[in-house]
Design goal:
Layout lengths: L7 H4 L10 E3 L2 E3 L5 E5 L6 E6 L3 H20 L2 H17 L1 H12 L3 H21 L6 E3 L6 E9 L2 E5 L7 H13 L2 E5 L5 H14 L6 E3 L5 H10 L3 E7 L2 H12 L4 E5 L4 E5 L5 H13 L9 E7 H16 L19 H16 L3 E4 L14 E6 L14 E7 L2 H9 L6 E5 L3 H10 L4 E4 L18 E2 L4 H6 L2 E9 L1
Parallel strand pairs: 7-8, 7-10, 8-9, 10-11, 12-13, 12-17, 13-16, 15-16, 17-18
Antiparallel strand pairs: 1-2, 3-4, 5-6, 6-20, 11-19, 14-15
Helix pairs in contact: 2-8, 3-5, 3-6, 3-7, 4-5, 4-7, 5-6, 8-9, 10-11
Bound molecules: NADPH dihydro-nicotinamide-adenine-dinucleotide phosphate (NDP) and glutaric acid (GUA).
InterPro entries: Ald_DH/histidinol_DH (IPR016161), Ald_DH_C (IPR016163), Ald_DH_CS_CYS (IPR016160), Ald_DH_CS_GLU (IPR029510), Ald_DH_N (IPR016162), Aldehyde_DH_dom (IPR015590), Aldehyde_DH_Superfamily (IPR050740), Succ_semiAld_DH (IPR010102)
Pfam family, one: Aldedh
Protein name: Succinate-semialdehyde dehydrogenase
Length: 491
Amino acid sequence: MLDTTTNLSALLKDPSLLATRAYVNGKWIDGADGTFAVTNPARGDVLAEVANLSRAQIATAIDAAHDAQRLWAARTAKERSVLLRRWFDLIMENQEDLGTILTAEQGKPLAEAKGEIAYGASFIEFYAEEAKRIYGETIPGHQADKRITVIKQPVGVAASITPWNFPTAMITRKAGPALAAGCSFLARPASETPLSALALAVLAARAGLPAGVFNVLPSGSSSEVGKEFCENEKVRKITFTGSTAVGRILLKQAADTVKKCSMELGGNAPFIVFDDADLDAAVEGAIQCKFRNNGQTCVCANRIYVQSGVYDAFAEKLKAKVAAMTVGDGLEEGSELGPLITEDAVQKVRDHIADATAKGARVILGGDKGGLPGTFFPPTIVTGATPEMAFATEETFGPLAPLFRFEDTDEVIAMANDTIFGLASYFYARDLSRVYKVAEALEYGIVGVNTGLISTEVAPFGGVKQSGLGREGSRHGIEEFLEVKYICMSV
Ligand SMILES: NC(=O)C1=CN([C@@H]2O[C@H](COP(=O)(O)OP(=O)(O)OC[C@H]3O[C@@H](n4cnc5c(N)ncnc54)[C@H](OP(=O)(O)O)[C@@H]3O)[C@@H](O)[C@H]2O)C=CC1
Ligand SMILES: O=C(O)CCCC(=O)O
């Protein structure tokens, strides 16, 4: 770790954004299970001690959210919209401070953290607008006296569990549509990154969101919270982002109370470069896609497939650009790649490199810590990657770019689809007929064509196969928080 400590509140223009108690039913409360420490992954120092809620406190919060939901749903869409818009404005007004809090607890460089704040806020803005467009239908009756109407109503209490890699955006992407739909919302942030979530709660309170409508429940024991969310009958919706392993646990647990579930789970994104691609654009796209958040996103390229004719040129160009990237403390000017979140995350990158080199891959950049402290790890590129290597089937979730060689389209489509995952995929090509065919053949919820960045609030984000259930963002995202009711009337 770096030999520095972080006086986080001194770095903030508005230190009151640094909240450490839980936000439940409009009140800031202490945890019955004491506190847990939140650290800066770049420096290793403790940033704050945060309230550790007990399972009983989670149950009490669910009761409050249940009561608040009925009143919230009874408001007009426009009233909900106005409050969400106010929350959005406050988030953007405090972008700098929120970015600083995010970098301190998560590690990503400040510019990237501020980008996440804007991205996260965009979901609140989008769904503030969408709240007013929850339209129903009328259907021609099946008998002469029948009139059929379809209305949409909020599911009820929605509970979220979110990861540390996007501490703000993964909450707002769920809370925005939930609140717009008329659900109340319980956020259980990752134990590594609760401060960004609590800062959102400070601003939700300032925006005037009623007590119990938006709650933030930090807890050191995610499995206990998960059980309470899943087993409590008052929770009607579970929305999760994280690993496929945990998603499976939550789906099983939620089965007994038959809850509506949406799951944004692991990915294993292929990034394909065909020989007719604009190679410089492909290199740019690969860097944006692979090294965003230092490789720690579920849509980061995990396997880079390059056609034989351009393989060596692509590897050289990529190496030259990546070698120039600066690894450093996200709070320091100029850092492009921060630390990894934990020692375990570093170990996984090392394991994947060791496995690959033992099976014949060659490291052309990085490969070991090279004197970097703590959980910093240099961006690494390996050539000669093959399907037998661990990263072919498992998400590395770190700054390792393996380059696979391929000869023809059918071969690369087969390799790209040979995974249990199906979240994001990318390819670079210019031939129009190839572009259509490959986009259709990739078994993924998201396909980036000649771009390495696909995330936006206006598009439906989500995966197929074991990458998840449901979509977030766009008009589709709000449907996850709505039930359809059909009213049959005899006239
Ligand atoms: N799709 C995505 O965006 C993400 C994918 N991943 C993948 O998962 C791997 C492991 O990362 P990790 O952070 O451990 O991901 P996890 O899936 O373990 O964690 C995600 C969230 O789930 C919580 N959680 C963990 N176990 C349970 C449980 N039994 N019941 C309820 N909630 C639970 C975590 O809490 P707590 O913080 O307390 O552990 C965290 O809030 C990564 O290397 C990556 O491959 C990880 C994060 C995001
Ligand atoms: O890794 C994740 O789950 C977060 C997705 C980031 C994005 O929305 O682009």
